[in-house]
Sequence to fold (552 residues):
Amino acid sequence: MKQLFLLLASLNIASAQTAPGHWYDHAVIYEIYPRSFQDSNGDGIGDLNGIASRLDYLKDLGVDAIWITPFFPSPNADFGYDVSDYVNVAPEYGTMQDWDHLVAEAKQRGIRILVDFVVNHTSDQHPWFKESRSSRNNPKRDWYVWKSGGGPTQPPTHWTSIFGGYTWTWDAQTEQWYYHIFLPQQPDVNWANPELRKAMFEVVRFWLDHGASGFRLDATPYLFEDPAFPEDFNPPAPGGPAALEPYNSGRPENHQVLREMRRIMDTYPGDPVLLGESSTATIEDLAKVYGRNHDEIQLPMDFLFGNLTTLDAATFKKQVDAAQLQLGGQTPVFFFSSHDHQRQWSVFGDGTHNDQIAKLTATLTLAQRGAVLLYYGEEIGMETMPAGGLKSVPVGPKRPRADDRDGERTPMQWNAGLNAGFTQGTPWLPVESNYRRYSVESEKKDPKSIYSWYWNLLKLRHDNSVFRDGSYVPLESGNPNVFAFGRTSGASDLALIVLNTSPKQQTIQITGMPGEWPQFRHILMASPQAIAPSSPKFTIAPYGVLIATTGQ
Ligand code: NOJ
Fold:
């Protein structure tokens, strides 16, 4: 035992520690796309009352918080990410009373709610923008970004929007261009304007006053543009995704806004949190998003990890080590699936072993130190609906437009009944045809299902201190197909997690643990079944996953 203590004490030197004390440092945050989670009134569109009716399910699954994507009034040019009223609920999702009811019910179950705050832009139908575009002299003109350019045929710059085309739209009435990093229906607000800033911060207070436990902040890299608006094309950041360009992303001015927002948050009880959609080109840039004094976004999503699409142990190790060891001990945020990303069952599956691989990728995120985002249905292995399944669905009031992300937004698969239990009406998007096999009801009965695997992992994160807040221990497996890492809670237990991302059995030889090989007493979880490794050299099954512990 003494030897184990010494071993763990020395391991801690290299491993990343979690600062104690915040619920979100080890939270599982479950993302709900409200349109598709549960319909309560038969209109084929999910709603807040539907979410309330499923809180027992979420409690039993073990989630700490839910993040609900926008449910505010919106013309739905971008399914709610074009907000026309920040302080209300869209009729298809319910009312403010329904929100209050949801908050109260969630609170009773110890589940927090994060509101999706679209901070970079409004809808072009928002009254602020309507005023702003009404005349060049309107007091709200400067709430948005207006420029003359070279007249109607020559935009002020040739920067391209993330959704295609230039970032500028000509307004014939006032003869100027307005700026939008996304759709023309999503004009960017001007955070440099103090009145706009004040109005946005009132939105923060509104939802915190109404029981929100924080926000998922949309599109945080884009709040400011280079004030000189250089006319030339915007070169992509070196090594970064095309969408991160120096003239209009990751500007230094962002920090001040986020610090101010955080200061407001910190005046509220209950440790509210900012979860940031904070895409960065490098891990060093991601570290900066937390704020120099840890006074900005507590949970910036790690897109360097979340954008990975190849099942490859060596790449997983590289990105996990970076997140665990190069963020100055701050809390990393792991995820793969979202309303913008294809579902991980489909992305990483090889067409034959998808269920086993789903358990592997679940372990990869949920066994980490840090916060983890789950996307609704991920826990039952929902797939991205192939495009063919969506072709025949009419565009109309329920489905205002076809979106290339519709495939990952299909209705939640609750059971084998009508529309998989999602609605009594006609669902706005079709239910994926595999719903009889992949549903909450059927998988709950099967101890070997993907759902049961997730349930056990979440339980481990709650009940086992090593997985709740233990440090990360970097290890080497000696085999590029296998990712091995450790978790430890100081002087007590050590857990070993091993993931084989290849279709073949692999032999590994683990290094990185100083001293003798510890005695792993138990397998906490394994798929397929495995025995606790008694020496650093052992084999692991094709796509095998195991979690062993020195503890009880
Ligand atoms: C990121 C959101 O996640 C995405 O769905 C949306 O289209 C853009 N931001 C624009 O708001």
